[in-house]
Amino acid sequence: MTTKFKVEKFDRKSNFLLRKMRVTLLLVKEDTQKAILDIEKKPSKMKDNEWNDIDFHTKATIILCLSDEVLNNVVNEETTVGL
Question: Rounded distance, CA 78 to CA 2, Å?
Answer without folding.
Answer: 30
